[in-house]
Design goal:
Blueprint lengths: L3 E5 L3 E4 L7 H9 L4 E4 L10 H13 L8 E7 L7 H8 L4 E4 L19 H10 L2 E4 L13 H16 L5 E3 L5 H8 L5 E5 L1 H5 L23 H12 L5 E3 L8 H4 L14 H11 L6 H13 L7 E10 L4 E3 L2 E3 L7 E6 L2
Parallel strand pairs: 2-3, 3-4, 4-5, 5-6, 6-7, 7-8, 8-9
Antiparallel strand pairs: 1-10, 10-13, 11-12
Helix pairs in contact: 3-4, 6-8
This protein binds N-carbamoyl-L-aspartate (NCD) and zinc ion.
The site of N-carbamoyl-L-aspartate has 12 residues, from loops.
């Protein structure tokens, strides 16, 4: 049994840091593990301009603890009204991607795109500029069962989008189904996917074990076991099309433990540790470095990080809660024992 594993410092290609006082907690957790992160723009109001993204980046950098190096990679939130000219400004300012939320698909997505046809000129500009398109791949049609919304998205939106923009680099974010894993595996090199740690570790039973478990609720929602297995297969198979994106998405505990609980699991406090656990369970620790540290930079046209981290098989207990501004944040696995820990 491997007792320790040293890998290139990983990156998180899908992360929600939030803003204001929350950054003290969220940035410290991510920066202790990851060299870079793709920062999601779904603030209230959303980050829709280059100027807003650069201001947000400065607030994130100000929250990086002394002694740690962490580079936030910024994104813009696509709306029906994003001016085409904003793409050139974004590119010049080092913004790497735009995020497509179908309107109403998830937390803070009300400003999202109502019809893909409305953003075609922007997608064309992105394709030319080499900005990545990050897609929340779920239809919002209330007639579609919530467990089927990702698979239906492939047919209704992803395949037509791909045909219209064959050179656009697309990340199918936080995939949760066998259908999405197969779609990405079978598509050309311009399509990739991120996979979260919680979708590798849990199936939808986790939502209902011994009662309703709001801290396991995220979107896209956890799926049945066969889908979890397909995701593990994709993540551990060595394909450069799949890479790490935690989708760590903090909410105040009182809004998760609520009659209408918020979607989002907070995993940044133990993210690479949970991925190590999932890869270990699959007998694929040797594939963790590619997934966590190499495939993502390659897709984004960046060099891997220079440094490394070491993970040890050494049980530890995750804290029960963290400060989150004036509120309390309960992470996934709060108070539980985790088998892998990151060496200081
Ligand atoms: C995310 C959030 O809270 O911002 N929630 C989630 O369940 N993943 C939004 C998102 O990425 O869908
Ligand atoms: Zn997300």
């Amino acid at each position: 049994m491997t007792g320790a594993l040293t890998i290139r410092r990983p990156d998180d290609w899908h992360l929600h840091l939030r803003d204001g006082a929350a950054l003290a907690t969220t940035v410290a957790h991510s920066a202790a593990r990851f060299g870079r992160a793709i920062v999601m723009p779904n603030l209230r109001p959303p980050v829709t301009t280059t100027a807003q993204a650069l201001d947000y980046k400065a607030r994130i950098l100000a929250a990086v603890p002394p002694g740690l190096a962490f580079e936030p990679l910024m994104t813009l939130y696509l709306t029906d009204n994003l001016p085409v000219a904003e793409i050139a400004r974004a590119k010049a300012a080092g913004i790497v991607a735009c995020k497509l939320y179908p309107a109403g698909a998830t937390t803070n997505s009300d400003a999202g795109v109502t019809d893909l046809r409305k953003v075609e000129p922007v997608l064309e500009a992105m394709q030319r500029a080499g900005l990545r398109l990050l897609v929340h791949g779920e239809v919002t049609d209330p007639a579609v069962d919530i467990f089927d919304r990702e698979a239906v998205f492939i047919e209704r939106q992803m395949i037509p989008l791909r045909q219209r923009f064959p050179e656009l680099k697309i990340v199918f974010e936080h995939i949760t189904t066998r259908e999405a894993a197969q779609y990405v595996a079978g598509s050309d090199a311009h399509t990739a996917a991120t996979i979260t740690a919680h979708h590798l570790l849990y199936n939808r039973n986790a939502l209902f074990t011994g009662g309703l478990r709001p801290h396991y609720y995220c979107l896209p929602v956890l799926k049945r076991e066969a889908h979890r297995q397909a995701l593990v297969h994709a993540a551990t198979g060595g394909s450069p099309k799949f890479f790490l994106g935690t989708d760590s998405a903090p909410h105040p505990a009182q809004l998760k433990e609520h009659a209408s609980g918020c979607a989002g699991c907070y995993t940044a406090h133990a993210a690479i540790e949970m991925y190590a656990e999932a890869f270990d369970a699959a007998g694929a620790l040797d594939k963790l470095e590619g997934f966590a540290s190499l495939h993502g930079p390659a897709f984004y046209g960046l060099a891997p990080n220079a440094g490394s981290i070491t993970l040890r098989r050494e049980p530890w207990t995750a804290p029960g809660h963290f400060a989150f501004g004036d509120a309390e944040l309960k992470p996934l696995r709060a108070g539980e024992t985790l088998p892998w820990r990151i060496a200081e």
